[in-house]
Specification:
Elements (H helix, E strand, L loop, with lengths): L2 H21 L4 H12 L1 H10 L4 H13 L3 E4 L7 H4 L3 E4 L2 H7 L9 E4 L11 E6 L9 H13 L1 E11 L2 H8 L5 E5 L5 E8 L4 E9 L5 E3 L3 E4 L3 H10 L2 E2 L8 E2 L8 E8 L10
Parallel strand pairs: 1-2, 1-4, 2-3, 4-5
Antiparallel strand pairs: 5-13, 6-7, 7-8, 8-9, 8-10, 11-13, 12-13
Bound molecules: S-adenosylmethionine.
Length: 279
């Protein structure tokens, strides 16, 4: 990359960051979370390697074949899922994630963009959009709506949108673990600690620390997460121009593991006027 292009890319990254921090200034911990994506690249590299063959990835691949291309993964990270799905575009807010993803041979045909999914304008409309394992639960109400609406704007009429979210049942489990410090082992020399907390009725904090392969322990949290009911998510989707094509049969997968089954949403871009004028 020449110096001019490198400078343009760095400025673009700063602009993205500034926009995100501005939107989140009222919840500083969430701003921390987004800053953390850049800082947690090494953690994510270990996670991605350990979970490269996660069965949940296959669901995104199968649905990609069903909806066809062009396609996009928002929150593409290091390309763990995109390596199997091979979308046309990969969008991520973290410049460091994209920098690393760019060297992957599996992503050679995927155009990678540093941008916020809530306002990126894709070079062309797509027929399949997905967000895999992307902590939508960390988004507040307006950020979730903004993302759903912008993903709709980038979609062709009838295009599919698939994403996973933690169900409220997951957080009931968390409530019972309030204050508890949980030590986990990845089985590959990687240890992590998670401390559970709760701020308000629906707002949970999960503070993560990890130690990669005997290195220094680093704090990558806190993550703040919200427990959205299915009704709340469905309402936001409808308002943003999506329809639930399979209200009773969206597959249940287990992207986050554990005793609780999380939810995979499969929706389709509605044509015609929006249900609400919010967009
Ligand atoms: C949990 S990682 C998942 C990465 C990848 N989908 C996977 O499953 O391996 C979430 C990714 O979403 C990105 N992200 C978070 N907020 C975003 C936003 N508003 N727009 C675009 N990407 C975002 C983060 O930088 C991070 O790379």
């Amino acid at each position: 990359m020449n110096a001019g292009a490198a400078m343009a890319r760095a400025l673009c990254a700063i602009d993205v960051r500034r926009g995100v921090l501005e939107r989140y200034r009222h919840v500083s911990q969430v701003a921390d979370l987004l800053e953390n994506w850049d800082r947690s690249v090494d953690y994510w590299e270990v996670f991605s390697a350990l979970n490269a063959n996660d069965p949940a990835i296959d669901v995104y691949r199968v649905l990609s074949a069903r909806f066809g291309g062009p396609s996009v993964e928002y929150g593409v990270g290091l390309g763990r899922v995109a390596a199997k799905v091979r979308p046309t575009f990969g969008v991520d807010i973290s410049p460091r994630m994209i920098e690393k993803a760019q060297v992957s041979a599996d992503l050679a045909a995927t155009r990678l963009l540093v941008a916020d999914m809530a306002d990126v304008v894709l070079p062309e409309l797509v027929s399949y959009s997905y967000v895999a394992f992307s902590h939508f639960n960390a988004f507040d109400h307006s950020e979730l709506f903004g993302s759903f609406a912008n993903i709709r704007k980038n979609s062709l009429d009838g295009g599919g949108f698939v994403f996973d979210m933690r169900t409220p049942a997951r957080y009931r489990g968390l409530q019972s673990r309030l204050g508890e410090r949980f030590l986990g082992h990845s089985g590959d020399g990687w240890e992590f600690w998670v401390t559970f907390g709760q701020r308000e009725r629906d707002l949970f904090s999960i503070t993560c620390e990890y130690q990669v392969l005997g290195g220094q322990s680093t704090t990558i949290g806190p993550f703040l997460e919200r427990a959205y009911s299915d009704e709340q998510v469905a309402e936001l989707l409808l308002d943003a121009g999506w329809e639930l094509v399979e209200p009773d049969s969206y597959a249940s997968v287990d992207p986050y593991r554990g005793s609780v089954t999380d939810r995979l949403w499969v929706v389709q871009a509605r044509s015609g006027p929006l249900r609400s004028g919010r967009r």
